[in-house]
Amino acid sequence: MRSGHTTEEVSRQGRSEDGSERRAMASVPVTSSAILPPWIKDIWHASLVQWKKERREYEDVIDAHCAISGEDIIKASMSVKSTFDHTLLKTLCKLDWEVPLESVTEERIITEIDKIVNNVKNGSIVNIDALFDDELRIVLHESDVQARVVNYFKLCEDIISRNGLQNTFATSTGIAHKCTILRKNLQPTGLRDKVETHQKLIDKSSTKNDVALYKL
Fold first, then answer.
1. Model-level pTM?
2. I want to staple 6 with a disulfide (CB 3.0 to 4.6 A). Which of 28, 47, 65, 214 is the partner?
3. What is the pLDDT of residues 81-108, one digit of tens each?
4. What is residue 170's DSSP assignment?
């Protein structure tokens, strides 16, 4: 079974009437139990960021499978609680969340995970400009201009997510600074100059709105 697919291809060999070997491919249904979810084994920030990504992929595969099979999505998918390391969850419930393990809900667990993921690592603000100067790059050898820009904006979001900066960039001030970062690291230089001129002389909305900046 390959992640993202709801059927497996199985190779079958036989011989045609003239005696030559032939190969046929058959689709074999895959049950929802064969689609394995990611587990939570620790609460390191980077681990939970990766877990959320894999959990979304798992849920997408389950959705696609159930759309074909007609299974109930809730019954077909494993809950976050059931895929949480039991001892770790028990420890968190007792020491941090102060709720009995038996009583902790799926919603509470997800909320607590989001708190960790969406907050800056160790509660300290990193040097944001240096971080993006280091990691944010546009891939100039990509010939598809739209794909190049989409991937550039996606990389920006990935950097934000990896470093727990979601809350920092959720405010109007944060969004405006994200626009500054995106513009500052834009390449080639001619394109960056063109964007800056547009913002200064024609329309300033893209200095505070990343969607407007993308559409320039």
1. 0.61
2. 65
3. 999 999 999 999 999 999 999 999 999 9
4. T
